[in-house]
Design brief:
With about 400 residues, this protein is mainly α. A 3-stranded antiparallel beta sheet has the order 1-2-3, with no helix packed on it. Strand 1 and strand 2 form a beta hairpin. Helix 7 packs antiparallel against helix 8 and helix 9 packs antiparallel against helix 10. The N and C termini lie far apart (about 80 Å).
Length: about 400
């Protein structure tokens, strides 16, 4: 059924059917997709009526039971919580489902919520990073949980180091360093809040490693050309992905910085773009002509007119919401696979931008300014990318030939 107006909805959700249908079309759903959503709403409404429930009963246990019954009845589509998200979101905005009082947080979740708030409001950490840190330290906090609190007063350096050694075993150096950083951050929070009697952050052991030991991976110019060429600029998705990849490889942006770009961040008259970087820093950068042309082509011809909000890069398929950082990274991996480049991450394109600048004659200080590094030491890794120059200054290995 392709006509949403032909879907008949009875039961407790009937008063909200028209508004939901109009909202689906406003968000850019095609008639057939909107009709599917309305049919799902009709089934849910019938199910609620049969159970003598109303819209206020739409809490997770109820929707889980509905989806289980829907699968048992032989339905093949729209069987996951994600399928119900558009409907539940619209009902929530209309106030149709008065959510039950928030359950009292258990001691672990209460402490982690306070920790997240501290990171966001006191340390100016972004919400996604705060959530990641809280997830990393959850096992540490949960291990101290008691029946009605979290035992912290008797926490010792031995407890901290034992957790780090156990939890970091078998992990990559990058993963282990992230966990160590999160635990140090948590311990600083606990001391500031007076929850532990002494500062224990210094007792967290460091992850073994050597600065500048690796060599940043970067694409060669012909590989960059292949990567951009696989974006079909005759399609909306291709124009969007081409614009994002051009920003990544020409300006060295991070995936999260591309995701955060707003329409108002592009200053077309002055040829500049505003970047919302790490640590909530906001900086202006010049926008090369090819970058501006790629972004303008996408905005003029492919960004959905019904897109919600002012984020520049949004979903092409409904609902036209802003992309996540993971979606930007996925676009890079998808293009790299089509180009036959194997596994390429968004950060590889950042390394590529730095490498190309160095090969064009830029100095490390200039590269650091473009990449918006706060310290020159962070940029020093790129001193090793020009292998031909390194060969000229490298000393012969003792006992080696020549």
């Amino acid at each position: 059924m392709a006509d949403p107006s032909r879907v008949r909805i009875g039961g407790p959700l009937a008063p909200f059917a028209q508004g939901f249908g109009e909202e689906l079309l406003r968000q850019g759903y095609r008639p057939n997709a909107a009709a599917n959503q309305l049919q799902l709403m009709a089934h849910l409404s019938r199910w609620l009526g049969a159970k003598s429930l109303d819209a206020q009963a739409l809490i997770p246990p109820t929707t889980t039971a509905f989806l289980a019954d829907r699968r048992a009845a032989g339905y093949r589509l729209w069987l996951s919580p994600k399928a119900l998200a558009p409907l539940l979101g619209d009902l929530r905005e209309l106030g149709a489902d008065s959510p039950p009082p928030a359950p009292e947080l258990d001691p672990v979740e209460d402490l982690l919520q306070r920790y997240r708030d501290y990171l966001v409001h006191e340390r100016a950490v972004s919400v996604p990073v705060a959530q990641t840190y809280a997830c990393l330290v959850h096992p540490f906090v949960a291990g101290r949980a008691r029946s009605n609190d979290v035992a912290l007063a008797d926490l010792t350096p031995h407890d901290v180091s034992s957790f780090i050694l156990a939890s970091c075993s078998g992990r990559t150096r990058g993963s282990a360093k992230m966990r160590v950083t999160a635990v140090r951050s948590l311990l600083s929070f606990l001391f500031v809040q007076g929850l532990i009697p002494a500062p224990l952050a210094p007792s967290v052991p460091s992850v073994a490693g050597w600065r500048l030991a690796g060599l940043p991976r970067a694409l060669e110019p012909d590989e960059v050309a292949r990567l951009l060429a696989v974006c079909d600029r005759c399609t909306d998705t291709g124009r969007r992905d081409f614009a994002m990849l051009t920003l990544l490889v020409r300006l060295g942006l991070r995936a999260g910085e591309v995701r955060a770009l707003h329409l108002d961040d592009f200053h077309w008259r002055t040829g500049e773009v505003v970047i919302h970087g790490k640590g909530n820093r906001v900086e202006q950068m010049p926008m090369p002509p090819d970058v501006g042309e790629a972004v303008a082509d996408y905005l003029r011809h492919s960004r959905p007119s019904s897109a919600a909000g002012r984020l520049a890069f949004v979903r092409i398929r409904a609902p036209h919401r802003g992309l996540t950082t993971s979606a930007v990274s996925f676009a890079v991996r998808r293009a790299a696979q089509r180009a036959g480049l194997g596994s390429v991450t968004a950060h590889v394109l950042r390394h590529t931008a730095a490498t190309q600048m160095l090969r064009a004659g830029a100095g490390l200080r200039e590269v650091g300014q473009v990449l918006r590094h706060q310290r020159l030491q962070t940029t020093a890794i790129y001193a090793k990318v020009d292998r031909d120059r390194l060969r000229l200054i490298a000393r012969a290995w003792p006992g080696g030939a020549g």
